[in-house]
Amino acid sequence: MIAIVLQCQFYRLQGWLVLMSSDCLKTTKTPVFADFSADYPENEESRIQKLLSYRILDTAPETAYDDLTALAAYICGTAASLVSLIDVSKQWIKSKVGLEITETPRNIAFCAHAILNQGVMIVPDTHRDDRFVDNLLVTGAPYIRFYAGAPLITSDGYALGTLCVVDYEPKQLDEAQIRALEVLSRQVVSHLELRLSVLRIQQETAEKEKAQVALQQIRLFRNSRGGH
Q: What is the set of domains in the chain, with CATH numbers?
């Protein structure tokens, strides 16, 4: 655990260096080295290992996730929606509607806070929330004012990221919208679990094929010895 925390601290600094040259700094007076980062989950090391096991980071967009993202924005009546995954150093966007970003440093990610919750984290107005009022995504582009994120929690309890909706004006969600966001987040997890199952089947198939090839080579070797 100590190793992963030290690594995360290093990436926090790396994230600050990235931000120094980002577009949001051109439109904000927020101090560059202000720390907006969330605490780490207690199971952070195993959580990262679980996330990596899906082999989904930096993969191409997929319709299955894009449909859920679009539906979340529609139901919640927001300008944008994202499926985000929280890695050691960054927030990586698997699916998006209404925003063009593909990743952000973890230390400014709203979703890094949301994965610490079991339920939906709602920020009705970022200008009235001490955690985010000076966040570079609030004081600069894309100028987020509203956020709601449902954690993507696996069957074994790991929060990998969120299905979230954002807007550029203060907003509230009603109970039906909150429940819908939770339902959709579980569908995202179902797609992730399906991906993991497919990967396991592919690995098992590859191992069986490898074993069959090895067995065939052994038989050929034995037959060749018997022929002498």
A: 2-189 (3.30.450.40)
